[in-house]
Amino acid sequence: MDDVRTGDARAGRRQDAVQPIRPDQDQGRLASNIAASMSGVPAFIVERQLAHFDSADRDYGNQVRAALRKAGVEFR
Asked: In angstroms, how far is CA 42 from the centroid of its own chain?
């Protein structure tokens, strides 16, 4: 879908990226996948990502935190 004002074909996709992830089962699976992929990532980067998750959906940020703890990923 193009943004008619700018002709930007990416405009519609940006909105899709911030849509809530549902159902909860999918959200949990995604949080686990993110936690696994952050193994070995410096803590300051993990914390920065958590801030992004929180700004999109605080509950989802908390799910990612729980998955990170379960995976043994260190952060504040």
From this structure: 17
Token pair in block for residue 31: 């949080």
pLDDT at 18 over 90: no
SS (H, E, C) 4-58: CCCCECCHHHHHHHCCCCCCHHHHHHHHHHHHHHCCCCCHHHHHHHHHHHHHHCH
> Cα–Cα distance between 41 and 71 in angstroms, integer?
12
Q: Which residue has the higher pLDDT, 31 or 22?
A: 31
Whether the predicted model's global pTM rises above the 0.85 cut = no
